[in-house]
Amino acid sequence: MLFSLYVKNFALIQELRVEFSPGLTIITGETGAGKSILIGALNLVLGDRASSDLVRSGTSKAVIEAVLKEVICEKIVRLLNDANIEIAPELILRREISSNGQSRCFINDTPCTAALLKKAGEELIDLHGQHEHQLLLHADTHETMLDDYALTAGDVMAYQTYRATLQGLLQQVHALKQEAASLQGKKEILDLQLTELNGVELKSDEAGCIEEEIIILENAETLYTLSSTLNDLLYESEHSLYSGITAALHTLEKLAAIDKRFDIHLQESRTATSIIDELSRFTRSYASGIDFHPQRLDTLRERQLQIQRLCKKYQRTVDGLIELRNELESKSALDEKLDERLDLLEQKVMICKLELSRRAATLSAKRQEAARRLEPAIQEQLAELGIPNATFIVSMTHEAQPEGDISLDGSTFTAYSRGYDKIEFLISTNSGEKPRPLIKVASGGEISRVMLAMKSVLAESTNLPILIFDEIDTGISGRVAEAVGKSLRKLSRLHQIIAITHLPQIAAMADLHLGVKKSLQLDRTVTEVTPLDQESRLQAIASLISGEQISVSSLTLAAELVGTARN
Question: Which of 39, 184, 521, 539 registers the highest number of CB atoms within 10 A of its CB?
């Protein structure tokens, strides 16, 4: 239950703490006294969008804190655990709004996001304001209401899982078909390019090797002459370098035998002799191995020109051409496997559609069974709320679609996000009239009662422990108001109910009656909320009957209403 609400520096509220009780809490007060401010504060602490305009002028921030007891359930535990928030017997939701527009949220004194605050609130409190009346007029909310009654959340989730899988598969099929069409249009060019590149048989280092070999072949005569000359200088001539250093070596050996300081130079000279000898052998071998092959040179030049033409044509280096060839080979191989991959995907699509259809049929059957129970239950509630001749129908239709993803009984249908049913509530409020959509039939007062009837019927199936009604009495009065009050009182035996009302018949049903008033304090308007005792409660109900001028008769009638409510 909602145990308390603390509000500070919020709109007309300077500071107040309101404590609630189980059962039915009624809030009354003059128009403009601040009843809706309380609802606004609750909305904010439940994660609604914040605005600095709501901060009381002259203050730095507004603070709203709601304390809830006996509300810890599996979903709340999972929500808090996922956010690393400590779980305690009480759940404390707090919102701080600064005058500069910044907002801070807390759960059990741990900072959190407004989205998390909203998720927690949605699991605990159903705050039904005037805009929810209007939501009932939109058919897209009817499906959710029926599912709440049918307890088909798990079936909806299973259906949505298969639908998401199917959509993913269909996207893959579409992409694969586009790829196949694209490749088909380029296949002739691709094959020509691949044939051309494969025919050249490129190697990554070939261009450099060809360049080096061409340079050598073009300079074969020069290389032969120079290597032969070098060999003569080193070894073959009469005064060759080898002969000179050999003679020097003999002299060094004699010197070293006398003075050891020549030993290091002797070793270096021997090394030099070995180097000259090795170089001489290399130049002799090199000169003898030089080939003069003009045909080989022509072949290399043709190969070089061929490679250069390809590089220029494709605007790539040799390595780039090799990468292109590999890419084309991959595309060619992919093209060969496209049909196989497409067949496999389409088989998966068919299997997924069959399972999706089965899930949709199961979900629809459960909804139909629930609709058969919901229709008389709503009609019974409406009769208690002063619409005795109402006919309430849950319309379920399906859209035939030749390319639909749902296949049942030889026909195909559109797969919507929550099944293949189109659900809409139809109503007739008078005998003999054909049921029509709510938006075309019901008045404001009737819509309020239809919503209350829905809440009453769904009360046993919903897990929300707290229901809050703002202006549930729109468009009603007299005997109907009394019926609405009794319905709220009955509903409060299953849930904690907090309701704002202007009608004495409803106010008389309260287990706890809170009065809202505004006054001037230090030249500023302040909203106050006070729990009413028996006497002040009768005064408040009497003011709802006769206005500011409370008469003896209105007090008597207020006492009768309270007495009747207790029976």
Answer: 39
Residue 469: strand pairing partners: 128, 499
pLDDT of residue 131: 52
| Type of residue at 278 | E
Q: List the single range of 23-32, 462-471, 540-549 with lowest mean pLDDT.
A: 462-471
Which has the closest alpha carbon to 13: 60, 61, 56, 70? 56
Q: Which pair of tokens denotes residue 222?
A: 């020069």
CB neighbours (10 Å) of residue 202?
19
At 46, the pLDDT band (50, 70, 90 cuts) reads confident
> Helix (H, G, I), strand (E, B), or coil: what is residue 203?
coil
Among 156, 164, 172, which residue's Cα sits nearest to residue 347? 172
54's CB contacts (< 8 A; 6+ apart) are 10, 11, 40, 44, 62, 97
Q: Which string of b and e fits 283-308 if b means at least 16 CB within 10 Å?
A: bbebbeebeeeeeebeebeebbeebe
> Are the CB atoms for 19 and 3 separated by under 8 Å?
yes
State how beta strands 496-500 and 466-470 pair: parallel
Tokens 């730095």 correspond to: 60
Q: What residue spans of 235-317 are helical by DSSP H?
A: 241-258, 263-289, 294-314
> How is residue 18 annotated by DSSP?
E
For the whole model, what pTM was predicted? 0.63
Q: Quick one: tokens of 142?
A: 């009817």
Residue 236: predicted pLDDT: 78
Asked if pLDDT for residue 191 goes beyond 80, the answer is: no
Domains, the chain, with CATH or none: 1-137+464-532 (3.40.50.300), 180-334 (no CATH)
- Tokens at residue 333, please? 């191989």
Both structure tokens of 415 = 């797969």
CA–CA dist 45, 80 (Å, integer): 16
Contacts of 160 (CB under 8 A, 6+ apart): 417, 418
**Tokens, residue 52:** 């600095």
Beta strands at 90-98 and 103-107: parallel, antiparallel or unpaired: antiparallel
50: left (phi over 0), alpha (psi -120 to 50) or beta: beta
Q: Is 423 left (phi over 0), alpha (psi -120 to 50) or beta?
A: beta
Provide the 3-class DSSP secondary structure of residue 65: strand
CA distances 242 to 6, 224, 248, 482, 492, Å, are 109, 21, 10, 131, 120
The SS3 assignment for 363 reads: helix
Other CB atoms within 10 A of residue 282 CB: 14
For the segment 481-493, the average pLDDT, to the nearest whole number, is: 88
The partner residues of 96 in beta bridges, in order of sequence, read 63, 104
Q: The dihedral of CA 476, 477, 482, 485: what is its sign?
A: positive
Q: Are strands 422-428 and 436-437 parallel, antiparallel or unpaired?
A: antiparallel
The CA distance from 408 to 419, in Å, is 13
Report how far residue 498's alpha carbon sits from residue 23's, in angstroms, rounded to the nearest whole number: 8
Which tens digit of pLDDT belongs to each residue from 232-284? 888 877 778 888 888 888 888 888 888 888 888 888 888 888 888 888 888 88
